[in-house]
């Protein structure tokens, strides 16, 4: 489903019926300014400096990642408190704990993210919570989120989010078909259920110094064995 936020009824939407939700004009300019100011103060790490992502996403440029401060994190979670998210999360059985994990991301010219479904163990363990042993299973990602905070983006600059439907062929191979090709439209937010194959297209050199500024992460659940 793709719609403007002011026209969206979260009480009538269900992720069980429609696994992808795109809301345009979710963030006001003032809200984006607040997050961009916080991003300017954040401590960024390059993709190549983060071992898990360096192994999982080679040849994807050197995009940046940073932690969200508690103040901005609270604002983010309050704005995303949609009943359709809670309804989907609570539909899973034997939930032990609920988790959330979100970060800032900055993509410049040459940066991308190769196709994946958010379940690969070699980077899913980044979601491990304090107290878990190395042998513990990480929380299971249930809903992925990405939202855009830059104020300008031109179609020539690339950086689209591609979301796929997957179909298994008779020979057992999985075939991917594009279901959404989404430009990183300022102020928009995208939710989709996990697992779901997706990728971020490479930011074109035509973007020059413009950067694709986003927040991305997951709503997750931990379960009793």
From TrEMBL:
UniProt organism field: Candidatus Nitronereus thalassa
Cofactor(s) for this UniProt protein: L-ascorbate
PROSITE patterns: FE2OG_OXY
Any Pfam family hit: 2OG-FeII_Oxy_4
Domain Fe2OG dioxygenase: 96-221
UniProt protein name: 2OG-Fe(II) oxygenase
Alphabetically ordered keywords of this record: Dioxygenase, Iron, Metal-binding, Oxidoreductase, Vitamin C
Keyword Transport: no
Secretion signal span: none
InterPro entries: Oxoglu/Fe-dep_dioxygenase_dom, Pro_4_hyd_alph, TPA1/OFD1_N, uS12_prolyl_hydroxylase
UniProt keyword annotation of Metal-binding present: yes
């Amino acid at each position: 489903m793709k719609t403007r936020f002011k026209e969206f009824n979260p009480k009538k939407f269900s992720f069980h019926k429609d696994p992808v939700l795109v809301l345009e004009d979710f963030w006001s300019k003032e809200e984006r300014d607040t997050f961009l100011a916080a991003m300017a103060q954040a401590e960024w790490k390059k993709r190549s400096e983060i071992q898990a992502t360096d192994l999982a996403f080679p040849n994807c440029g050197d995009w940046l990642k940073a932690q969200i401060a508690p103040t901005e994190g609270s604002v983010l979670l309050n704005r995303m408190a949609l009943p359709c998210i809670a309804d989907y999360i609570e539909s899973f059985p034997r939930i032990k704990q609920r988790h959330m994990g979100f970060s800032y991301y900055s993509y410049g010219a040459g940066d991308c993210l190769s196709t994946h479904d958010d379940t690969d163990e070699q980077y899913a363990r980044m979601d491990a919570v304090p107290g878990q042993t190395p042998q513990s299973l990480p929380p299971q990602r249930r809903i992925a989120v990405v939202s855009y905070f830059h104020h300008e983006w031109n179609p020539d600059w690339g950086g689209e989010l591609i979301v796929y439907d997957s179909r298994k062929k008779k020979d057992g191979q999985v075939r991917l078909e594009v279901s959404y090709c989404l430009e990183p439209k300022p102020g928009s937010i995208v939710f989709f259920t996990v697992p779901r194959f997706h990728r971020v297209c490479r930011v074109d050199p035509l973007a020059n110094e413009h950067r694709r500024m986003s927040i991305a992460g997951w709503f997750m659940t931990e379960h009793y064995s």
